[in-house]
Amino acid sequence: MTDSNDGYPGKVARLRADLGALPSVAVALSGGVDSSALAFASGSALGRRAIAVTAVSPSVPAEEIEIAAEVAARAGVEHVRVETRELEDPRYARNDGNRCYFCKSELFSVMEGIARGRGIGAIAYGAITDDLRDVRPGAKAAGEFRVLAPLVAAGFTKEDVRRYAREAGLPNSERPASACLSSRVPFGTPVTAEALERIGALERRLHALGYPIVRVRHHGDLARIEVSPDRIEDAVLRDGPAILAAARESGYARAAVDLRGYRQGAMNEALATSPGDRSTRVLPPGVSQEVSPSVLLLRSEGAARVDLLRRRGEYARLGRPFAALELG
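Given the sequence above, the corresponding structure tokens read:
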């Protein structure tokens, strides 16, 4: 990995040198900014000896595939769309802590076949140094398939990636981080095509309501919605009725706004948290609760709701690991 003291120019130089030394490369392009930066850098270094491969499956939002096509065109590389069938793998569908491993294994297996058939010398994906601080089972699959992580090797952080993407004129340089739709399903809850459709439909409706940073966490008939922390009060007090209506149009009976808001890797908190008891907490007048193994669901109206939002940090700490305020 490049020494951080080299600074951004040194990281870019290292990335160009590493990519330029490859005979050819197939880049896993998801539509996110990390893999997009890598695809552009690969095209710049290798020209037509680089291709971009995008998975098409129910777990991939349609807008991500569209963005990937724009990025590939901007990078000047061939864009190959391939159907992946991770949902057909019961090990993936059962959704334990290794779900991402089986997803990446499916993708890299497909890419390996493409690379072999085309005589491409290497496969690469868009991992960055920030990813090393989170639970990433997909990295294990990358190691097993000998998939390169050039951005990690060059020392790229998320800030570096966004800067590079801006300089390259990529359409998603400032787009919020995204992940596959299956990441919205709590570990231990089976992933199904029907659940992914509901999640995707509601996230599209929430984007249309003005929430670009949003995650719909799937808890059966309940959608636990994470928005950016500075938009939590808007989501509850101003847009609550519209959000609840959008949830019901998407197939959910109930909706709640997470009291901590969106944070990367939130679902991994459940892996690091021992199961909480299902006993109730003593709460102030005007606040009621429903307890499940992973979500403390709170209800309140009027002044009590406003006060709850003002003190939401205190209430959020009561969750196991999640606490949310129900809409409606």
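The chain is about 45% helix and 15% strand. Try to locate this feature in the token string yourself.
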